[in-house]
């Protein structure tokens, strides 16, 4: 929100009388009832009332001038004196007029009732509510700040779900449930586990970012998993049925004859779970040569090389 002094067209040296006078003038200009054809009238009026709410309260005004709270009355930092846990007393406590933006009055300077302004400007009907005579809810005290935390889980836990204990700032340990099928970078909102409001409002939330740890066998690609499988040379040449590990357990996969290294095979439904089922597992085969010398194989390879060279000539 803009600087409240700028909104009211005042300098920081303005008196309480100047603030009241500026508000009366601008409220009359921007009231939604008098600007029904302007779609931004409510937004302008909400900004105006919020600015007046802050500057007409001498305590809030002083805190804003010192940089302790922002233009919306929210603390810039915690630990300063002068705030209690509950709402302030004052002439605005029972005034419920606000716009659709949720802004309204809560407090006035001593001896001044803001309802008198609207009664003077728009008649006695303005005492009961906003445009159209509808009652609006009083603005609630600011909520506490949200806190951020992160948690790294295994791929298996991300797929099947799990319970884990985490430490929230400053030093609160809680147990959280990791939902089944969560993806990397997903943020879980933990309601009411953030910082307490210094004004007596609702506490903030904890925003927990979940990361999936790298897996020794599988690589995550969206809802698809990828893995590499070593295959014996004779199985790649002649074809074979091999066992492939998946997150759900090992399964059989058929390799056709003359399968080259680097060839991909798709196992449907063996990837990460989705709303409609599961992704796929892509298996890339790597041909595994014998670790020990094999004279018979070497002789065959020399023969094939010779034949290939002769054909090229």
TrEMBL record:
Gene Ontology MF: a single term: unfolded protein binding
SUPFAM superfamilies: Chaperone J-domain, HSP40/DnaJ peptide-binding domain
UniProt-listed CDD domains: DnaJ, DnaJ_C
Matches recorded under SMART domains: DnaJ (SM00271)
Signal sequence residues: none
GO terms (BP aspect): protein refolding
Bilayer-crossing regions: none
Keyword annotations: Chaperone
Positions of the UniProt region annotated as Disordered: 293-313
Protein name: DnaJ-class molecular chaperone
